[in-house]
Amino acid sequence: MNRQLEIEKKWQSKWNEAHLFERDRIDGMPKFFGNFPFPYINGKLHLGHGYSMMKLEATIRYQLMKGKNILWPFGFHATGEPIVGMAKRVAEGDSNQIRALELSGIPKEKMEEFKDPYNIVRYFMKTTEDTCRNLGVAVDWRRKFVTTQLTPTFSKFIEWQYRKLHSMGYVVQASHPVIYCPSCKSPTGEHDRLEGDDARIVDFVLLYFYVPDVDAYLVPATLRPETVFGVTNIFLHPDATYVVANVDGKKVIVSESTAVKFKEQEHEVTDIAPIDLKELFGKYAINPMTEEKVIIIPGTFIDPDGATGVVMSVPAHAPVDYATLMELKENPELVEKYGIDHEEIKKIEPISLIEIQGFSEFPAKDVVEEMGIRGQKDPKLKDATKLVYRKEAMHGVTKAITGKYQGKSVEEVKDLLVKDMLEEHKAMILKEPSEIVVCRCGTRNYVKFLENQWFLKFSDPEWKAKVYKMIDKMTFYPPEAKNAFIRTVDWVENRACVRQSGLGTPAPWDPEWIIETLSDSVIYMAYYIVSKYVNEGSFKEEWAIDPIFDYIYLGKGNARKLSKEHGIPEKLLKDIKKDFQYWYGFDLRSSGKDLVNNHLTFMLFHHAAIFPEKYWPKAIHVNGYVNVAKKTADNKIIEEKMSKRKGNFKTLDDLLETFGADITRITLLTAGEGMEDAAIMPDEIPSYSKWLNTLMSMAEETDIDDEMQQIDRWLISKMQDQIQKTIDNYENIRTRSAFQSAYHETLHLIKWYTNRRNGTKGPGFKYAREVIIKMIAPMLPHLAEEIWEMWGRKGFIATSHFPHVEKDKIDLDAEYGEKYLGEVVDDLKNLISFLTSRGNDPPSEIVLYVSPQWKYKIYEEARTNGTKTLLKNIMQDPEIKSKGKAAVSYAQSLMKKGAPPDIPISYETEMKVLEEAIPFIEKQFNAKVAVKPAEGADHPKAKVAVPRRPGIVLN
RNA sequence: GCAGGGGUCGCCAAGCCUGGUCAACGGCGCUGGGUUUAGGUCCCAGUCCUUUAGAGGUUCGUGGGUUCAAAUCCCACCCCCUGCACCA
Fold first, then answer.
1. In Å, what is the CA distance from A332 to each residue of A325, A326, A344, A939?
2. How far apart are CA A881 and CA A292, in angstroms?
3. HSE on the CB side for A88, CA within 13 Å?
4. Residue A284: half-sphere exposure toward Cβ, Cα within 13 Å
5. Which residue lies nearest B42, CA-to-C1' measured?
6. Which nucleotides of chain B have an atom under 7 angstroms from any protein CB?
7. What is the widest separation between alpha-carbon atoms in chain A?
8. Are strands A588-592 and A619-623 parallel, antiparallel or unpaired?
9. Which of A 226-285 have CB under 7 A of nucleic chain B?
10. How far apart are alpha carbons A374 and A390 in whole angstroms?
11. How far apart are CA A332 and CA A315, in angstroms?
């Protein structure tokens, strides 16, 4: 561990001293610009960051070894609420917050500083950079910066970005529904909620049920408007207060607490007046679709604050309604105390309107009875409702009672019906949270339309079209990610781009607002170009103005003129512009899949809007989440999301401190690939060090001879395959597979090689180990550099050339021969273990009978022309024909198995390979070995000999 | 609800897009053996069932279908996971 740490520090400082990753434009040299979303620095980097980063890191270093000029810049994200919130909580002395910070290693004395959000930013900028440096990543730190006004030129850049979008008409003002807390007077985000984390906004349909007695409409709210044909009564909560209000010119009755929603959702509301329930209970309302009269009765299951506090009852298809009705029927006092005639209740019968296989005409009744539900407050009702709704939505068909809507699927009817009812003013829409939402302050939330919000007009068809085009031209890793992006573009609507609080850049056209956090992180990759000059002091803040950005990024204007007007040196201006033209568009952005349907897609939109096509992004890599896996007592592996609460939260520093950089790197690189979630198994990590040890001792091996044997040629030939595979894996950012093909598989080859060479090593080994070390260098750079130096090579292995396939090193004869030998050895192993398991002694003598010549003719015929015409073709050969039954039987066995693999083989090759391998086989099985032709031998096993399968006699 | 992704031999997990070479890569666990011998590491073999010679049988969520041939293609069904926006 100590030596390893020493090695890592040594190479990290050597890379630094050589400025190895601080890359500048070299005109004419191919480049590779990779980046990954700058981390939000409200804490230390965790394994999820590390996982995404390592995909990019391996790729960057691979591209460097492929001769590219590379660029990986790094930034820090601080825009938005969380850091401000953290500082506020620290300032308030919030013990949870302070303890959380202390737990993540922040010294107590820092707490005073942490009352200022900018100090938090500074602190975690430092830890983040340190972590990265300890990990040994190929970052050009000269270009680092943090968002927000801590980097004034960056803020100016964002202003430029938004003035551009604004002037293009892509920033618009509109109102928008949000889940809203009337007490805090602000939208409640997921983290601001006591209850209802998963709530979405859904459309409830409000149906106008006219109540003649009071000349107003009851407006039950429902998600299943199609069941209007089965309404038998209306429920109101007997203990709630109801009001009459004039909404959009119509008098409606709703619960008092819900009346406010209409106004908040941009309806006109006047004349709110209370109404006594006595005026309603026992009276009738008229179903707008059927004109039937339905009675108004009490239901205590109703949530008076939900939707309108008015519920229509469909006992045939809604378990709650059915259960309530049954309860009322059995308990007269429940209605009689409100002056309702119980006889009226007894008369109510469910009305069926949906037909569904596997249920009676009243699915709600079926389910209520089956689940043994009793009463309107039975907790099982939730599941019952879900079940019935789901079944009916999926398989239900409407009955004749629905009139012109009959015979259709429930889903179809719903859309049609709502459209019709809205047109006929029989219904209206009210937006509601899909479940109860309670703000942290304890107040029940509802949906409000926020007015005059600034939006990015992602719904714009022309803008979308550009993005589709962009996606089409891009490469995605893994390929299936492309579809995810297309879907996101399909789905994305206008999106708010400003906030009222938090850190960030004020909107240039309306400084009351701050550019929202996902909106100032979409084209910042272009800012890295300028950032270098800002950091070195040559680009002054006063030059961060629109005309200069226009010149750099869009090529507008004239350098001399700009220089004269603003005092910026003409050469500097031209250099920056050339830099941008050289590096942009970037070649790869690597990120987690959680960013696909927001950040990454917005990034595409912004590039499409602002930059000309030649600067569009070239590729995106998307990876899964990182789970922490652990073993249960019975050896099952269970994966858990990393979370601080579960106590399995791991920072990169945790791993680095325990295992060092290379092992941390290989842990992350082999944890997974593609969009599937990756798994880190903390208990397994220590064993990864054996890989490093193996590589090192392989590199240190000096007992190597110069004799080029057949098996050396075989190994060198096989390595060409491994090189190609590894290149493919790197090119497609499959790091786990890359390590597999570069290390595990090659080691397997070397194992066979040393066995075959009776424990000695030769030129094949020497060649293979160099290839291996180079191939793993992008993943384990510290170890690789150390070995490179140990071998006395010049320069860094990081900038040496990645192995390439050398065609002339491919030796198919050697490969086929070894494959054949391997098969024979496998057969021998099987046979011997089978026999010894039956109590026989291991053989002391092995005789191998190589198939007679004529069978090879049949084999070759089958291999080259397939088995369909096999018999016909071979029988034209007189020699084969003369073998009669034996020939037919071999041909038939080939036909049965299908065409043999495309491996040519000859009698001579088999004889040669086996004879040469006699010492090897003897050693393997500790027995005397003889190789004989089957032709002319009379041992019965000689007769079963066929090509690639000699007859085996064990004595 | 809408959208996306899945269900593989104890566990994790390849393969499926481009059907056959798949009883099905690899890792873990387990069993036996070796090294060591206090363990761990490390190495070898085995790990669906049957089988006294390299073989056969039954498997890849369930049920059908296409095909000479399906884990792989088509249809239906069951189950699971993820996202759904003003949050970074």
1. 11, 11, 11, 100
2. 93
3. 8
4. 11
5. A690
6. 1-6, 10-14, 20-21, 26-30, 41-46, 52-54, 83-88
7. 114
8. parallel
9. none
10. 22
11. 18
| Distance, CA of A188 to C1' of B86, in Å | 10
* Residue numbers 926-945 of A with CB closer than 7 A to any atom of strand B: 941, 944-945
User: Residue A354: beta bridge partners?
Assistant: A398
State the nucleotide closest to A198 in CA–C1' terms.
B84
In the 575-594 segment of chain A, residues within 7 Å (Cβ) of strand B are 594
How far does the CA of A456 sit from the C1' of B43, in Å?
63
**Distance, CA of A205 to CA of A416 (rounded, Å):** 13
Rounded, the Å distance between the CA of A161 and C1' of B4 is: 32
Question: For residues A412 and A641, what is the distance between their CA atoms, to the nearest angstrom?
Answer: 39
* HEC readout, A576-603: HHHHHHHHCCCCEEEEEHHHHHHHHHHH
pLDDT interval class at A718 (50, 70, 90): confident
The answer, as to whether pTM is greater than 0.95, is no
Q: Which of A136-150, A441-455, A899-913 has the highest mean pLDDT?
A: A136-150
Gap from A625 CA to B30 C1', Å: 31
With tokens 């034996």, the residue in question is A886
Q: The tokens of A306 are what? A: 């939900």
Q: Is the CB of A690 under 7 A from strand B?
A: yes
Q: Which residue carries 């922490």 as its tokens?
A: A628
What is the value of ipTM here, to two decimals?
0.84
The reply to whether the CB atom of residue A390 sits less than 7 A from any atom in nucleic acid chain B is yes
User: CB-based burial of residue A197 (10 Å sphere; 0-12 exposed, 13-18 middle, 19+ buried)?
Assistant: exposed
Q: Which nucleotide is nearest to A493 (CA to C1')?
A: B85
All residues at 6 or more sequence positions from A883 whose CB lies less than 8 Å from its CB, including other chains:
A854
Task: Using the CA of A639, give the nucleotide whose C1' is nearest.
Answer: B12
Q: How far apart are CA A938 and CA A934, in angstroms?
A: 8
Q: Is the dihedral of CA A512, A516, A517, A521 positive or negative?
A: negative
Predicted confidence (pLDDT) per residue in A626-668, tens digit? 888 777 766 677 777 777 777 778 889 988 888 889 988 988 8
How distant is C1' of B76 from CA of A409, in Å?
18
Residue A708's Cβ-side half-sphere holds a number of Cα atoms within 13 Å equal to: 6
User: Is A889 in contact with A946 (CB distance < 8 Å)?
Assistant: no
Q: How far is the CA of A820 from the C1' of B56 (A)?
A: 24
Q: What would the mean pLDDT of A763-782 be, rounded to a whole number?
A: 92
Name the β-bridge partners of A80: A503
Q: CB A844: neighbour CB atoms within 10 A?
A: 11
Strand B closer than 7 A to residue A489 Cβ: no
Partners of A242 in the β-ladder = A255, A275
Task: Find the Å distance, CA of residue A62 to C1' of nucleotide B70.
Answer: 39
Q: Are A776 and A784 in contact (CB under 8 A)?
A: yes
Q: Quote the pLDDT of residue A839.
A: 63
Residue closest to A151 by CA, chosen among A255, A79, A51: A79
- H-helix segments, A474-610: 481-491, 527-536, 546-554, 559-566, 570-583, 601-610
A478 preceded by a cis bond (ω within 30 of 0): yes
Find the mean pLDDT for residues A798-808.
93
- Distance between CA atoms of A479 and A620, rounded to whole angstroms? 10
- With a CB cutoff of 8 Å and minimum separation 6, the contacts of A916 are A710
- Each residue of A825-880: pLDDT tens digit? 777 777 776 676 666 677 788 888 888 888 888 887 777 766 666 677 777 777 77
Say how far A114 CA is from B8 C1', in Å: 52
Q: Could you tell me what percentage of chain A is helix, strand and coil, using 3-state DSSP and rounding each to the nearest 5?
A: 50, 15, 35
pLDDT tens digits along A566-614: 999 999 999 999 999 999 999 999 998 889 989 999 999 999 999 999 9
Strand partners, A180: A187, A446
CA dist A30 and A17 (Å) reads 24
